[in-house]
Design a protein that fits this description.
Length: 183
């Protein structure tokens, strides 16, 4: 098949256009490849920075883990202590409730004791008046005993004189007693 000059020119022109189109397309592909490469590099750098930040955060978290565990253990101990304290408080409150439940009886007993004390006060007043009367009587008895003491003191010399007189009167009889065989 024989081609004419014009067909050759058209084919050359078509090849030339194809070559130009391919160069344009190659240039576009190169630009796209450069942009994709730049985007991938920026993405990889961003991902690397993100990974580095995560690693640093993990390091900070794990380095503080012992402190956090100690704090959690302290909190657990404190909550356990609070729980036992609450149990003790609950027991004390129950005992207080039980003790307070006896208060009406105590109030009733206190009222009865007041009435008894009032009755005792009257009886004590009566006893005081009786003791006062007894004191007056004892005072009278004391006065009479004092009078008797004075009387006996005044009689004492007379009785002593009588003893002396009896001894002098009985002397002659003592003489006769010495003659009797009986002791």
């Amino acid at each position: 098949m024989q081609l004419t000059e014009e067909q050759h020119n058209e084919i050359r022109q078509a090849v030339q256009d194809l070559k130009t189109a391919m160069e344009i397309r190659g240039g576009l592909n190169l630009r796209v490849a450069r942009r994709v490469t730049t985007i991938l590099r920026v993405g990889m750098i961003g991902f690397g920075i993100f990974t580095l930040v995560l690693v640093l955060m993990m390091y900070a978290f794990t380095s503080k883990m012992t402190i956090m565990l100690d704090a959690l253990n302290t909190m657990t101990y404190q909550f356990t202590s609070m729980s036992s304290d609450m149990q003790v408080m609950r027991t004390v409150i129950t005992q207080m409730d039980h003790s307070v439940s006896a208060m009406p009886n105590i109030v009733t007993q206190t009222g009865e004791m007041r009435r008894s004390v009032r009755g005792l006060r009257g009886e004590i007043t009566t006893m005081n008046s009786q003791v006062d009367g007894m004191q007056n009587r004892l005072h009278g008895i004391t006065t009479q005993v004092d009078q008797m003491t004075h009387t006996f003191r005044s009689l004492d010399p007379a009785v002593q004189g009588l003893g002396t007189d009896l001894n002098s009167i009985s002397r002659p009889m003592k003489f006769f007693n010495s003659f009797t065989p009986f002791p």
